[in-house]
Request: fold
Amino acid sequence: MLVYVNRSIRSLLIALALLAMPAAALAQVSVAITVAPPELPVYDQPACPGDGYIWTPGYWAWGDAGYYWVPGTWIMAPEVGFLWTPGYWGWGGSSFVFYQGYWGPQVGFYGGIDYGFGYVGHGYEGGRWDNGHFFYNRSVNNVNVTVVHNVYNTTVNETHVIRVSYNGGNGGINERPTAAEEAASRERHVPPVAAQVQHAETARSNPELRASANHGNPPIAATAKPGEFEGGGAVKAREGSDNAAARTENTSKPTAVHPNDLPPAERMATPNTGDAKLDKKYQQQQDKLSAQQNQERQKLQQQQDKEHQQLAKRNADDASKQQVEQKHQQQTQQLVQKHTAQQQQLQQKQQPARSAQASRPAEERSR
Reply:
């Protein structure tokens, strides 16, 4: 007997989801499940295998032996312009119901679950479609620019620690769909593609992925491609990783390729020696260095932009583009190292005077 959700919104969503479910997914909600799914494990994201692949986060599914982990993986989008809405577990009043994920032009509601890698609970901040090409946000995705060239860098706040894997009920995420997310559920969308269904079936048949065996830390937490559970593309969960630092690392900060990819330069500590004149002098030194470093960033970016334009004019092949991008990445990292060293040198230069000033009696410093 199927589990029913009493609220009208939930009824609409489950009806739409059930219409799109393959037989294997439908079986996940055909029994009354009263035990909540485990917390989401923390893991690193495998590198994106190529253009057009969309990250689909891992999730806990239900089988004959209880919950088992379906590893996150990169999936080729079934249509240009389509995005993935992850599935999620929700409390239906008397048992847990699994709402299957789907592909569509907009990301719908996925329970407010923070799956990471751009899926922060609502919407998707890991990438976007533009003129028939998918562009990846490198601040939350592991993308090798020698393989994937359509990238940008926008900071996403994923420093909080929320590993709860279900919506509603005792201890669940207390989120409801927005009007836009409800509209997305009514748009044309398609169920998981064949590769996703097979990926989930492979996970179901692997005893090591059962929660009863791995205790919430699956040995295969993510894969580079669906069904590839062995080899360098398979990633294990970080056992016991439930702290903010591990969750932040889960977003996998890639190396910047161009100066424009870099975050704003961190400001040095404001001088505070107790001597207003000395503080003003130190601040001027810091401002001068900051302005100089910003100019060097801009100059390098302009130089790299010019080289991009030259490549476009001569219709350079992919190999040539990759060589240039590798050179740009090296140039950018060398600039970062240079600027970091300059800031450290200035702080070390100012430190002795600060210490000496601080050791003077207060009445002497005030003269």
Q: What stands out?
A: The first strand starts at residue 53 and ends at 56. Residues 1-30, 241-254, 362-366 have pLDDT under 50 and may be disordered.
